[in-house]
Amino acid sequence: MVSPQPVTSESTRTPEPRVLAAARPRGLSPQGVGMVALALTVTIWAAFALSARALSASTLLPADAALLRFGVPLVILAPALWRRRRRLAAVRPGPALKIICGAGVPFFLAAMYGGSLTSAAFVGAIVPGMVPLFVSALMVAGGKRAPRGTQAAGLALIVAGVVALVWRYTAALDADVLLGTGTLLVASGLWALYTVGLREVDLDPVGSIGLLCLPSFAVVALLALTGVLPTGLARAAGGDIALFLVVQGLGVGLCAGLLYAFAIRRLGPERSSVVGSLSPVAVVLLAMPLLDESPTVPVVVGVPLITLGVALANRRPRTKVSTDA
Length: 325
Prior knowledge:
Elements: H1 18-22, H2 30-54, H3 62-83, H4 85-89, H5 93-103, H6 105-117, H7 120-129, H8 131-141, H9 149-171, H10 175-199, H11 205-225, H12 238-267, H13 269-276, H14 279-291, H15 297-313
């Protein structure tokens, strides 16, 4: 998913993770390493969209996928999170709720359900694509200035792209696709709330992952134990468990956050967001061989519009430099 431009103040900058430092290919410049990290991040974001669509055909239920998504990072990061327990406890309730609701259980279930009713292309385009628009709306509601110029044009292209995606199904009154699209828009709005919450906390990427995953895992486990969310993890096929463990738990839950934060430090937020906007295109290309999805005319028209719109919406306006002597 196309993540927002994170806080880059000195208080939130963290040293390069040891795993990434040890795996750095020799001979690559810092910018080259950043591009590798960003390419891996885009691939993981695309895998999230593909898994949202693939869940409906697997032996796993949404609660099972959620337990893997939020549980695996907690197990791997447990020692690091314990060392950060005081900083996690000091996070204000408001930003914490934005993060937990915005990228936790409500977002996850909305994305999975929306993906089961539409296609991987819809998940990959709508969920990350609409985030800049929702974030801008939240910023304006909070008293910030409305986007102008290139950024406003990018937001308009995003809306045009989403309309192009769903227009055919609106005319044909395809209730499932329209419901799925609406659910994906809800998921995108929740992710925008997560975006705003991230800007309001002073946590490094590991701390942010813990703040999200710990309460989310507890909520899913409680809902599963009480029967509110059915679970079939004990009867699921081993291959499905392994796939979602790698894609959702290790990929989305752990690696994407760390790699994207690393890419931001190497490339800067603007270049990272522009390259990250290619995620919807990657989803469409990967869905063809992996899920046997053929891109329709609305997808061919809508996805490029959304991709271009995201790239423009994430551009920072250039500041004029005075040339007066």
